[in-house]
Amino acid sequence: MIVINMKNHTLTNKTSARVKTVLALAVATSLSTSFAHAQATANEENEISTQNQNTVVSQHTESSVDDAWSFADLYDNEQGDYLKLSGRLQLDSAWVDSDQGDFNDTAWRRFRFGFKGKYGDLKVALEADVNLNDSLDDAYNRLTDANVSWSLDKDTELKFLKQSTGFTLDGKTSSKKLLTPQRNNLTNNLWFTSEYFTGVSVKSKLADDWSYKTGLFSSDGSDEISISDASYFAMFSTAKKLAKNSLWDKGEISFDYVYNDTHEDGNTRDFSQIISTSSKFKQNDWGLLSDISWGKGDLGQSDIFGVVVMPTYQQNEKIQWVARYTYLSSSEDNGVRLGRYESKVVDEHGQSSVAGERGDKYQEVYAGVNWFVNDHKLKLQAGLQYAKMDDNANDGGAFDGWSFTVAMRSYW
Fold first, then answer.
1. If exposure means fewest CB atoms within 10 Å of the residue's CB, which of 49, 178, 205, 269 is most exposed?
2. Residues 6 or more apart whose Cβ sits within 8 Å of residue 353
């Protein structure tokens, strides 16, 4: 048994509030400093050359914005070894207007902080998830990444201990690089939303642009590194990059399979098997992403089938438009969960007798825009969504309403 416990924190309320504020503003302060420096640089260039002013200012501004992230680089050498800070800071403001009631809230969505390093063929990562909405003595949630990797060769990596276990289109996309503020509801239902589990995995690139990742993980729900409770699940994913042709400049198809030895104490969804096929295509400024997935229910959970289609349009380097359609259906009543903010409406106003406020058929249409201040390292997102949940059992899981979300996403 391996167990690490980090929850013994005691601080006064006054100190807690002060430190919490420092944590929340640390990254924003670093970024704002870079913008101030960029403006100063632009003023200097006005005196150098009127003819090339716009070009020079633009180049220096972009360079200065990039420099804001240099605070995370603690050490590196010519051999490629390094030590860096790692983390992410994410903020959400959400408004929901539905037949079942209204909801609005502004909150820190995620704050994670830690480090990652490389020495020779070895890599290490350690990162903690912190809830900035609580006082500091209650803020620590859990470890996320806490692992060691070994490069067997230039294409193959073996990883041990706590790590991300991604499958489905959005499940294997980091929250740092999602094109929408929240993952689609197909992923929310089928993927194991705790994401980080203790285990061992190997990933490798193969010939002809094939790649794979496979692993065996404990379904233990511990906040730290532990394999003492629950059971296990195994995952296999493979992907193929497609050659450029008249239909797409870039294309990729992938297949995920999960076998889960379901356990009542497990921290996974109650599916014994999950199959997902997803794709990504891009032609000039247009993109199309899709996911078709199925899960075999267990422990009272019914089977689920779902489809996601997500077209994108890159207007320019900074602006991207995104649309999405999601469809989910369960073979029995109360098999489908609502999305993050939709479920909060039903939690607050509904009379559901089923934990998680569920129905049997869900549809969603989403339209939004992303503004990349510094690529995915700092972006602003806004999206309008209409969702409808049918509840054949008529026990409180129905939903019909609109929601609007504005989000800030940053990582280093």
1. 49
2. 395, 396
pLDDT at 277 over 70: yes
- Place 64 in a pLDDT band, splitting at 50, 70 and 90: low
Those residues with Cβ within 8 angstroms of residue 350's Cβ, 6 or more apart along the chain or in another chain: 100, 101, 357, 396, 397
Q: Is the pLDDT of residue 22 over 50?
A: no
CA 207 to chain CA centroid, Å, is 29
In-domain check, residue 373: yes
Burial letters 205-230, b for 16+ CB under 10 A, else e: eeeeeebebebebbbbbbbbbbbeeb
Mean pLDDT calculated for residue range 243-254 = 97
* Torsion of Cα atoms, 27 then 29 then 32 then 36, to 10°: -140
Q: What is the CATH number of the domain that holds 226?
A: 2.40.160.10
Asked whether residue 359 is domain-assigned, the answer is yes
**Domain assignment of residue 1, yes or no:** no
Q: In whole angstroms, give the CA distance from residue 161 to residue 315.
A: 41
Res. 117: pLDDT tops 60:
yes
Q: Does residue 322 fall inside a structural domain?
A: yes
pLDDT above 60 for 268 = yes
- Cα–Cα distances (Å) from 412 to 60, 116, 138, 185, 219, in that order, read 21, 11, 24, 27, 29
Report the alpha-carbon distance of residue 279 to residue 168 in Å, rounded: 10
Which residue range is the domain that position 218 belongs to? 87-411
* 328 and 362 Cβ atoms separated by less than 8 Å: yes
Secondary structure, 3-state, 311-346: EEEECCCCEEEEEEEEEEEECCCCCEECCHHHHHHH
Residue 24: per-residue pLDDT: 44
Query: Residues 41, 61: contact at Cβ < 8 Å?
Result: yes
What is the spatial distance between Cα 83 and Cα 86, in angstroms, rounded to a whole number? 10
2-11, 145-154, 313-322: least confidently modelled range? 2-11
Residue with tokens 């422990």: 299
Please give the Cα distance from 269 to 281 (Å, whole number). 29
- Distance between CA atoms of residues 168 and 269, nearest Å: 13
> In the chain, how many domains are there?
1
Which residue from 126, 199, 113 is spatially nearest to 159, judged by alpha carbons? Answer: 199
Amino acid making up residue 204: S
